[in-house]
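Structure (tokenized):
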């Protein structure tokens, strides 16, 4: 098995399920750090700030620093600023998205936004959805942090951001620009900031449709692990295969 300079781990379904760590992932990450590999965490979950995400990982026994975490919120805020400049934003989302947008210079408004940004929101309401639909119908750019219809927690699969964005798209007839995986914005940003070569990077994830496709699109090696959304047996139906596929991360040899 190849030695990689930088490992990019998906979180939900790969490193943990909800609030429960996956022990094999915890052990591998520790072993990789001890061997000198660099570790990064890439998540479509827009709810947590990097600091909050790092603290969550630390509670699970995983060493992590905020600067090692790339969220779809950070990538979304940067995309919006790069494409349109600083804007008034109608937002559906939680603290991670709010912080990322404000740190990028955007202003959060409750209605009439110049852009609509949708992330996971566990306090979703009819009024929030209505305001987003009205702004999109009026011509505001429509950005989704990610298109995940569902994500795994300790109870099983629960609704993801893609379900909310899909509702808005159905009402308005406008489909969002999606920033998170399977798009490669987050991986590209890590590579750019850290000066990493593609041949020294690997992406680890459980979901073929998001994690593995993101790595394939960016052109780096990928490792599928059968601990979340995509079962190992289902990989045979895809024309492009991950570089590796394991039942558990305990199978990886350092």
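Design, position by position:
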């Amino acid at each position: 098995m190849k030695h990689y300079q930088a490992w990019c781990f998906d979180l939900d379904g790969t490193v943990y399920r909800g609030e429960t760590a996956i022990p094999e992932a915890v052990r591998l990450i520790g072993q990789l750090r001890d061997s000198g590999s660099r570790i990064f965490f890439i998540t479509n979950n827009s709810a947590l700030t990097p600091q909050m995400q790092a603290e969550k990982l630390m509670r699970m026994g995983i060493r992590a620093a905020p600067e090692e975490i790339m969220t779809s919120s950070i990538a979304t805020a940067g995309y919006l600023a790069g494409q349109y400049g600083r804007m008034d934003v109608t937002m559906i989302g939680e603290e991670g998205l709010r912080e990322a947008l404000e740190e990028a210079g955007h202003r959060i408004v409750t209605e009439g936004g110049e852009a609509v940004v949708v992330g996971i929101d566990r306090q979703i309401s009819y009024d929030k959805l209505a305001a987003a639909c009205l702004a999109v119908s009026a011509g505001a750019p429509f950005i989704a942090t990610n298109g995940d219809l569902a994500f795994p927690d300790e109870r099983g699969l629960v609704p993801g951001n893609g379900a909310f964005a899909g509702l808005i798209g159905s009402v308005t007839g406008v489909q969002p620009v999606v920033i998170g995986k399977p798009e490669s914005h987050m991986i590209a940003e890590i590579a750019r900031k850290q000066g990493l070569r593609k041949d020294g990077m690997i992406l680890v994830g459980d979901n073929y449709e998001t994690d593995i496709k993101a790595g394939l699109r960016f052109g780096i090696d990928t490792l599928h692990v059968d601990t979340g959304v995509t079962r190992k047996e289902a990989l045979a139906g895809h024309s492009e295969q991950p570089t590796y596929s394991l039942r558990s991360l305990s199978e990886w040899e350092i």
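Reviewer-requested clarification: Helices lie at 23-34, 50-59, 72-84, 95-103, 126-137, 161-172, 185-194, 208-218. The chain has a mean pLDDT of 94.
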